[in-house]
Structures are given as structure tokens and as C-alpha cells.
Amino acid sequence: ILAWRQLSPASLQARSASAQSTLDRRAHVTVLFNRSVGQLRDPNLEVRLAAIYVLREVAKDFPDLSDPVFDLLQAFLRASDIDYGDDDPPIDVQEIMKMLRSRLGDA
Q1: Nearest in space to 69 (alpha carbons), one of 98, 34, 41
Q2: Nearest C-alpha neighbor of 76 from the set 46, 103, 42, 44
Q3: Mean pLDDT value of segment 95-101
Q4: Closest CA to 65 of 94, 92, 25, 98
Q5: Spatial distance between the Cα atoms of 14 and 18, rounded to a whole number of angstroms
Q6: What is the model's pTM?
Q7: Backbone angles phi and psi of 13, in degrees to 5
Q8: Cα gap 71→67, rounded to integer Å
């Protein structure tokens, strides 16, 4: 019984630390998500690509955020009402389209 009492506080502390770690990770992901959304319209291609890749990883690591990420990217493409004619779209748009196609293939 004495050993159980010694483990119990340690077990509670471990669970508490685990829960806090999960909350901290979720808060960090929320910051990354919000920052990435703002960077999608950045004039610098590298910044836009980094934002797209961060959103891809968020969707992968957090299944409950997957739908919002893909909804956001679809809305972003719809709002970018640009006709590229015979030219290929920019690399960042191609990456978003590749992600969306991959998502459709998984569904």
C-alpha cells in the first residue's frame, strides 16, 4: 500500500505534465496555423511556400484540423481568380493544387 501511495502522486504528476505538453503543442500549432494563413499572400514566394508546407504538416499531424486546412486552401484558390492562360500557375499554386489532389485521392 505504501508503494502505491508513492506511485500515485508521481503518476498524477506525469499525467498532468503530459496534458500540459499536449496543450502547449496545440497552442503552438494554433500560432503556426494563424501565421501561415497570413503568409499565403506574402509577395515573397519562399514565404508563401513555407506557409503552404506548414499547413500541410498541420493537416497531417492534427487530423481534426485537416478539413479546415483544406477548406482554407480551396477558398484561397477560389479567391485568386487569375487566368493563367497557357502558362503554368506559380509554384505555390501548383503546390496547393498538388495537396488538394492528394487529399482527393485519399478520400
Answers
A1: 34
A2: 42
A3: 95
A4: 25
A5: 6
A6: 0.77
A7: -65, -40
A8: 6
